[in-house]
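Field: COMPLEX_INPUT
Field: COMPONENT_COUNT = two
Field: RESIDUE_TOTAL = 400
Field: MODE = joint
Values follow.
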Amino acid sequence: MSLQTTMEQIREYDRFSARPVTEEQVLSLLDEAVWAPNHHMREPWRFIWIAKDYRDKLGETLAKNEQSQLLALIQEAAACLIVAAPVPSDEREAKDDFAAACCLVQNLQILAAASGIGMSWHLPMRFENETFCSATELQPNERFVGVLGFGYFEDHWTSKLEKRSVRIDIW
Amino acid sequence: MNRLTTPAHRIVEDASSAHSEQASFSSTTEAVQEVARIIRERRTIRSFAKRAISGKELANLLDLAAQSVLLEHEPEALRFIICASEQGKRKAGAAIMDAYSSQGLYRWMPGKFIQAMAERVAKIPAIVAVIRRELADDASNDRQLAAASAIVHSFTLLAWERKLGLVWNTEPIVEHAALTTGIGLAADERLICLLYIGEFDKMPKSKRRTAAQEKWTVLGKQQDKEGHA
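Field: COMPLEX_OUTPUT
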């Protein structure tokens, strides 16, 4: 199966799937995802696995109406992983590191799709909720790159992805 | 907080052998392996074969790449300019050289150096400008940056599958007015990066990567290791 076919199968996690996605599975996909481009091999990322028994505690830090999608992900997704990136003092380095960590998350999205697993990607900002940051043990010199939810696609479930049109000019 | 106890700084040179025993969890192993192969093979390519590239082909790849990013963002506030025709590349090349020659360090470079650089830029088979429109708040702008990075990466992998390599240019010139006005950006548009794209003849060597487990923290009690459905 080509990369293109896999990419066309990319979906968000299936909230109705009962099949578990394990820590080992996510680690194994991550070991492929770490081959993301990054400047000077800084490998600017860190992974925080949110175990099942920590979900409620983390969910309590989120407001029901303002962050309902993020809350649903943390409460319901078969697996939940946070990707954090360091924020170096140099602004350009910080931008490059953030972009590199985003490439890693996108690798994970593609690898998950190839495994029949959907992934949702949320990107909360530190200033939006400090309590949430503390609960995830995000360090002062770090930022979120993604709060990710995983779950198998089930056969009965077909999500309709809205078409995202970006403007492309050809010169 | 638990940390998995593996020796610190253990580097995996070839994780495909290290993890082959874990690759059996899914019936779609073959698809994963194919995707993983492309992800692992991809390199930054800075020197290109002379062959021309079709702008339309790049546009199709970009369009598919844009569909592959699920982070919430505003797609209509992202824009790409693909310069693949001689005329288009000349326009972009001139704007890039204007930015270099009026900026910092390069202002003091001899004309010969600038000329050599201009020739190198002119030989790049295709240049893509990645542009975002400035949105009202920092959070939205950061999400646009994140989404744009992910789109560019998906595009990079799709291009790699077709033997096309690229390099991201995020040098300070991407913010230089000579460049942004030269390629006709509106006042509220920002150039995120330039991509230099072409077929590659030589593939640079791979560098080692740190295993994910070295950067792994668990919050809460570790999950049971069952669940191989």
